Structures are given as structure tokens and as C-alpha cells.
Predict the 3D structure of the following.
Amino acid sequence: MTVTTTQKDLEGLTLTFVTEFDAPVERVWQLWADPRKLERWWGPPSWPATFTQYDFVEGGAASYFMTGPDGSKPAGWWTISFIDAPHRLEFDDGFADEDGYPVEAMGAVHGVVTFETVGSGTRMTVTSHFQSREQFDQMAQMGMEEGMREALGQMDAILADVAV
């Protein structure tokens, strides 16, 4: 199983997933850096993502939507704030309206992803930093923890593909 631990810190307003892969850091990094690979796992299997914009540089923006089982297409955005390839990535992630503009009422979640070599594999830690307890609770009610666990669970299969 990809996800080894999940930790909720209600006081620190964080949700952290620790994952380990039997692949080198650079290959795991590519699952974030390459939008075609990213959309193979970003989102649970029943909500696949499509990235329509992906400028993977500091200050770069990304736009995406997910397609739900009912055909709905909720949209999201990223602003990439820090890249230290292949060790650290930081970005803000939020919901977008149907024209692609951020939904301010939902705020943004700051994501920090770190990669470290462990033996011949990689430990990846993904921490989501919430702006408030209300936002944390709202995302929890929307199933963020389960959705992220399912999304990360797809990475092993992609890494097993020799073409990755």
C-alpha cells in the first residue's frame, strides 16, 4: 500500500500523508512535474483529473477539473510557490468557478510535498495546511482525506509502468 500513515493535526491545521514507493526520488517527482502523469493520479479513481494549464515553475499556475461519476466537472487551480527539484514542492490549491477563477469563499490550501531517499526507494510526505478550523472541517466533510488517500494509492501502479 502506498500510504503508510495519515495524521490530522487540528491545532496545527494540517493533514499529512506519508507514502513510500519502490522507485527512486526522480521517478516519483515526475508524477508531479509532468501534467500527463499528474492527471493519472490527482483525484480519486472515480474523479479523474484533467489539467488544462500547467506551468510548473515558481509562480506558475495550473488549472484543472475533475470529472465525477455523474458527469459533473468541479474545477480547481494551483499557484506554485516553491520548487526544489526533486526534493520539495509547495503550492496553493483551491476551487475555481466555471470560468476558472478562484472561489474566494473556499480559500486555498497550502500544499507542501517533500521527497527523500529511503533505501532504494522514496518517502514522499504531503502536508496540507488549512487557513482555519472551519476550512479544515469543510474539507473533511467533503471527503478530502479519503479522496487524497485514494488518489495517492494510484501512484504505485503508475510507477510500475516502465514507460514512466
Q: What stands out?
A: The chain has one domain: 3-162. The longest strand covers residues 108-118.
